[in-house]
Amino acid sequence: MSCNKILKQTGHRLTPQRRLILDLIHDAHTHVGAEEIFDYVQARAPGVNKSTIYRTLKLLEQMGCVFKSEHDDRIIYHHAEEGHHHHLICRSCGKSYECEEALFSPVQRAIEEKYGFWVEFRHMVLSGLCSECRGRK
Amino acid sequence: MSCNKILKQTGHRLTPQRRLILDLIHDAHTHVGAEEIFDYVQARAPGVNKSTIYRTLKLLEQMGCVFKSEHDDRIIYHHAEEGHHHHLICRSCGKSYECEEALFSPVQRAIEEKYGFWVEFRHMVLSGLCSECRGRK
DNA sequence: TTTCATGCAAATGATTTGCATAGTC
DNA sequence: GACTATGCAAATCATTTGCATGAAA
Asked: Rounded distance, CA B103 to CA A93, Å?
């Protein structure tokens, strides 16, 4: 279900500010921080306040429309799409890639077998080296 | 190599404050936050300032003696031991378990094959349900 | 006795909140 | 028109910093 619908169904309103924030998070191919979201929104709707950004992000996170994570001492957000996935961020060039979630099923099972613990792998942000940066090294 | 040695070898001093912080992080079976570390240190050495805690934690992190992570909007620290491992935190009871690092080798290889990306799985903090809480449910 | 580390207090930066007003449903 | 969302400004919270003093090596 789309975020717009979720908002309406939960009695929230679809304001231009919220639309912009959703647009950015949805279209962004990389993860974005509060500051970047603010700049983006500010650019098309001058006057929007930073507290609105934070309030909206918190709301969207609660609705499950958006995921919040932490990487490299930065808080970042990304859209919670149907097909969940993880994020691979290259620590050398900074580029970000998506990683299919299914690849983690074997570990999930292995951990379950060994510890009885059921890990909920959701929207992980993983650090490492992308193919280009590994070759260049 | 022990943290004490690392400190000395890099020209840093082994003060009572640092000793206490190292003790706690080393002995703690759970991860600890700055506030808890402060309380612990404060209890045995009243007068120690919070900025000392933060400065020490940053130093230890830089030396690679300590790992900093984020879980549930909290910044937590844990000791970086020889045999690295991951952390499983139950979102129901809050208990924390250690998870052998080797279990992730298959995913690491799978991701490498599929995307050419080499993930550095280090001291991950994973959320989920422990065996007890799953049974109880 | 030379540095490095600490305590203190003030600064910072990100995020949150109260309240009156404006906008959506 | 009712009720939620916003802008603004002030508050909060964690973390950082400058500086004079104190303690390791």
From this structure: 28
- CATH fold, domain B86-136, is Dna Ligase; domain 1 (3.30.1490)
Q: How confident is the model at residue B135 (pLDDT cuts 50, 70, 90)?
A: confident
Contact A134 B120 (CB under 8 A): no
Strand A74-79 vs strand B125-129: parallel, antiparallel, or unpaired? unpaired
Given an 8 Å threshold on Cβ–Cβ distance, is A116 in contact with B131?
yes
pTM for the structure as a whole: 0.91
Q: Spell out the domain ranges in chain B.
A: 3-82, 86-136
Q: Is B93 an 8 Å CB contact of chain A?
A: no
**Mean pLDDT, to the nearest integer, of B75-82?**
86
CATH number for region A3-82: 1.10.10.10
B66 three-class SS: strand
